[in-house]
Amino acid sequence: MRICVVSYHSSPIEPAGVGRAGGMNVFTSSLYRLLGHFCEIDIFSYGKNGLTKIAPQVNIIHLDTKDLKNFAEEIISHHARQNYDLVHTHYWLSGITGLFLKRSIKKLWVHTFHTIEIFKSIEKDPVRVEIEEEIMRCSDLIISPTQKEASAIRTLYPDTNVITIPHGVDTNKFRAHPNGSSNLLYVGRIDPIKGLEFLIDALRILKGELRLDVIGGPSKRQVSLESIKSYAKGLRVNFLGRINHDELSDHYRTAAMVIIPSYYESFGLIALEAMASARPVIGFKDTGLLETVGDKAGILVKRNEYELARAVEYLLKNKNIRHKLGANGRKNVSDYRWEDIARHYFITYENIIKN
Fold first, then answer.
1. 43: closest CA among 70, 79, 85, 8?
2. Rounded to whole angstroms, how far apart are CA atoms 298 and 290?
3. CA 306 – CA 294 distance, rounded (Å)
4. Are β-strands 2-6 and 237-241 bridged in parallel, bridged antiparallel, or unpaired?
5. What's the pLDDT score for residue 312?
6. 60 inside domain
7. What is the pLDDT of residues 229-254, one digit of tens each?
8. pLDDT tens digits for 163-194?
């Protein structure tokens, strides 16, 4: 089986946590390294690095063209030599490439959105909404990471063929450790959609000597980082910048809890990493965390800074509950091992090609 994967806007080998690189990079890198045990995979991404082999049967092919039609035409040239069985595009920009490919090579097309514009609670881009609707109409299968998102897709677009396969976590890299710290941890890009200002406001409400470590770099412009630094002035907030993904486990180990204050999370890989590290997660109910974290591995609240502050204070004062939620999280992530998720993807690819 030969799979063509398109991750136009972000290469799996880009370090996560700054610029365009985030959870999707961790996802594509982790998933396709393991899928390489079962099939041959070419991952196409924008860049100037040429071909990079990340596993015996897995290549990242960087194409140095920003024009999406030209990008698609280069993939078509590769297809003429490789004869791919299936195309899997990731994120809406790659989906535009998928639209070109579907018209030209007429191969089975699977798409994963990772984020869907119409479901965001902040201001929406109408052009992107329209393009994503076209992707839903034209693709053969949509893979969603949560039942909640899949159900919302079916409600709005009843003709769309959609299934759910969750993302995964490396349970060997992220392990449970004794928890005696009272530090708070945020991991993610510095981007308005990540809602970091909610967490800063919650810290102001709590006062005291609480320390928050912020891991991640600016998503687009340095000004967003400088703005949030200014907003946090006078509080014990340490901006640690981007940390290598292999070193993140050390920071989970020294945290009391992990807080994900995003306006929108389709799934939340950070939540899985925190759970695997036996750290409780605090976030908002109106995100994909409702499905991954639920009420067993953390506290999810209504979206406002006062509810967030109350949840943080409650866990700081109740160490036993904090530990119980962390232990529950570690137990629950056994359902999200990357090895099992990769096998699920392989079976899905195999079935769609056969049927």
1. 8
2. 10
3. 20
4. unpaired
5. 96
6. yes
7. 999 999 999 999 988 888 999 999 99
8. 999 999 999 999 998 776 789 999 998 888 89
Pick the residue with more confidence: 100 or 12?
Answer: 100
- The DSSP output letter for 182 is -
pLDDT of 314 over the 70 cut: yes
- Domain encompassing residue 36: 2-168+337-354
Per-residue pLDDT, 108 = 96
- C-alpha to C-alpha distance for 123 and 133, rounded to whole angstroms: 17
Instruction: Count CB atoms within 10 A of the CB of residue 245.
Output: 17
Please check whether residue 174 lies inside any domain of the structure.
no
- Measured in Å, how far apart are the chain's first and last C-alpha atoms? 14
Q: In what order do the strands lie in the sheet with 141-144?
A: 51-55, 58-63, 40-46, 2-6, 86-90, 108-112, 141-144, 162-164
Burial status of residue 295 (CB atoms within 10 A of its CB: 0-12, 13-18, 19 or more): exposed
**H/E element holding 215?**
strand 212-215
Whether residues 54 and 198 share a domain: the answer is: no
Residues 194 and 157 in one domain: no
List the CATH number of the domain containing 54.
Answer: 3.40.50.2000
Question: Which parts of the chain fold into alpha helices (H)?
Answer: 23-35, 68-82, 92-104, 126-138, 147-156, 196-206, 222-231, 248-253, 269-276, 289-292, 305-317, 319-332, 338-354
Residue 176 falls inside a structural domain: no
Of 102, 89, 86, 77, give the one whose Cα is nearest residue 38: 86
Residues 247, 153 share a domain: no
pLDDT tens digits, 91-100: 999 999 999 9
3-state secondary structure of 29: helix
Q: Tell me: pLDDT of 17 over 70.
A: no
